[in-house]
């Protein structure tokens, strides 16, 4: 296991830094701001309220995207099946040091965030009525998902510089295959090659303004004729 350390980002929220890769789990310009902008504002909030949806997160990591999704779903009356893939789970000590529970004034959300991390791996757990979580301890490359269909994919893997295999055509093809018709994918990454490859596998690519510190982000739809 590579060395990991906790650092404070520009908006005061924390993230995990990997010195060997010079890579972070979230943006140093603001972990919380990035999650809300990329995955909520341009992802979850684009779904119709009062509906049932299935979300896949590629890179469950700290669970920040998951708890923010639960909070938003609660307000929008969404029923969500949430599947999070993670090859290298974050430790209990790291979760405590990140102190994400301090991001929420709502005491129930603090407890639910802790419940998410106590939930066993590879099992479907009801975190709240209308919100189930399945944390899968595996890589996207081995994820057996040919019969699953997701309305929304949070593509939050490490970037192409440090994890190039996650951004290559076989993985993108798999994600396209398991995206439901008119479903979509969102990612912080806006590299030209990634956008071209998303188009190659069949997605309709949209470039959007990025979160603080980043000029652009990407959203990709699965449109059917």
Explain what the structure shows.
With 225 residues, the chain is α/β, with parallel strands linked by helices. It has a single domain, classed as Vaccinia Virus protein VP39 (Rossmann fold), CATH 3.40.50.150. Helix content is 28%, strand content 28%. It has 6 helices and 11 strands. The strands form 2 sheets. Strands 6-7-5-4-8-9-11-10 form an 8-stranded mixed beta sheet. A hairpin with a 6-residue loop joins strand 10 and strand 11. Helix 1 crosses helix 2. It is globular, with a radius of gyration of 16 Å. It starts with a strand and ends with a strand. The mean pLDDT is 93.
Radius of gyration, in angstroms, nearest whole number: 16 Å
Portion in helices: 25-40%
Summarize model confidence as the mean pLDDT.
93
The tally of structural domains comes to 1
Main beta sheet, described?
Answer: 8 strands, mixed
Helix count equals 6
Global outline: globular
Strand segment count: 11
Low-confidence stretches: none
Strand content: 25-35%
How does the helix and strand content classify structurally? alpha/beta
Named at the architecture level, the CATH assignment is 3-Layer(aba) Sandwich
> How far apart are the first and last residues' alpha carbons, in Å?
46 Å
- Look at the structure and give the CATH class: Alpha Beta
CATH H-level homologous superfamily name: Vaccinia Virus protein VP39
CATH fold label = Rossmann fold
Strand order of the main beta sheet, please?
Answer: 6-7-5-4-8-9-11-10
